[in-house]
Amino acid sequence: MSGNVIARRLFKSLALFILRSAPQKEANQDKAHLEVERKFRLFDGEIDDLETRLPKSGYRPKGELTMTDTFLPAMKDEDMIRIRVESEGEARRRYLTLKDWAMIDGERERREQEGEIGLLASIVLRLVGRLVEGASPLSFSKVRRSYSSVRPDSGTGSDVQVVVSVDRVKGLGVYSGAYLEVEIIVAIGGDVKAARERIRTEVFELLGEHRDFVPRSYHDMLKEAMV
To answer: Could you tell me the pTM of the whole model?
Structure first.
């Protein structure tokens, strides 16, 4: 086993230790879960149309945040260890997120763990991550307006929370621009197919058409833009 692999494994252990000691971002996300999410490129004028249509479709605004994402060394290229700094006015919050991929019913979904961390933990992770990577970590920023709605699930009889985010993204080179993200959190072992279908339904209602989603994550776009 190479020294770099060992270093990355130790770094992941450090990140997991810090994460497990941190308060969770949401009360219902105290365990690993699946982030069933689809991203769609937006074109000229669509943001204004969306921000008019969302309240009419039953979505309530959650607010606007400026987010800066910094990516730290992970065990695999497709995995992710991220520190996100969310800014709202003078307030700053930092979140540590670990994601990897799970293949479910022929499609990949993100398995996620996330918790809030302090400034000191953030500094330690960045410094150690830079030593492991041997270079400064990649980062980008976005301004995100989020909306949420609780939709009835006819299949299970329970309600489903759908979160819609409208992003203005900078720092991704040719991939910078506007995006729509639609996300449903699903417990491990939950009904992923129903979440995917719900997202397709919501996107059709919001955009007025069936549109192919962007399969690459922002992280993947960032890595491609830096080549």
So the answer is: 0.89
